[in-house]
Amino acid sequence: MLATTVSWEIYEELRTLDISDTSISDVAIVQRKFRLGQAASWARWGNTRHDLAPITADNEDEFQSLAPMTTSVVFLGLNWGGTEVGKDIKDWQNFHTKGSKGDLRLMKSLPAALDEIPHEKGVAAPAPYMTDVFKLAPTRTAKDLKKKTKEDHNLVQRCAGLLQAELEICTRGNNGVPPLLIAFGNAAYGWLSDKDGPFASALSRVYRDTPCRIEKIIHAVAPKPNIVRTEQLISIFKKHF
Hints:
The chain is an alpha/beta fold. The chain contains 9 helices and 5 strands, in the order H-H-E-H-E-H-E-H-H-E-H-H-E-H. It has one domain (8-240): Uracil-DNA Glycosylase, subunit E. Strands 1-3-2-4-5 form a 5-stranded mixed sheet, sandwiched between helices. Strand 2 (69-77), helix 4 (101-109) and strand 3 form a beta-alpha-beta unit. The longest helix has 18 residues, at 155-172.
């Protein structure tokens, strides 16, 4: 069965979903408005890791001119890296940051595997949706994030609820079928697969009676050859498609 490609309506719903949170203690974040498009993206790159043209559309006509995208597969990083939120975050900039070695590795690792996603012959393979497990919670390391969750006891619950809403949109964009989730690294995978955690509860509400499909590949910042990630991803796609 061919992978379902997203419509303009789903693309826009994901991009414009309000993820602002007035309960966050970080003043630099709580005073600003954020939309999901500033924290998510699609697995397609242009000539550079920060070229957003292949995934950006401001209206339906522009969207129709883009190569297909899909929410049948969702890639998940852990959170924004660093300690501060950028001042001018463009839509779909996440995973496409200039100067990021991890984003460069993704650019060189992922596209070669996407042909394994069932799609029409002669048409580009659809670019999967990309997001983070934790939104509006920048930290340098997974250890720092763990500390932040202890300082802000509602952070995990808030982000789990947001991920649920996000994946429900992705499910509707995939003809009602919940997506295959692929985590970047052990930390993201651990939060998603913890059977007793808030994320498991959120995922159970998305998947309902359907088994939740969660896989993982090597983290983008891990200094492994790009081909290793590509081969891992090809193996996952062959398993599920």
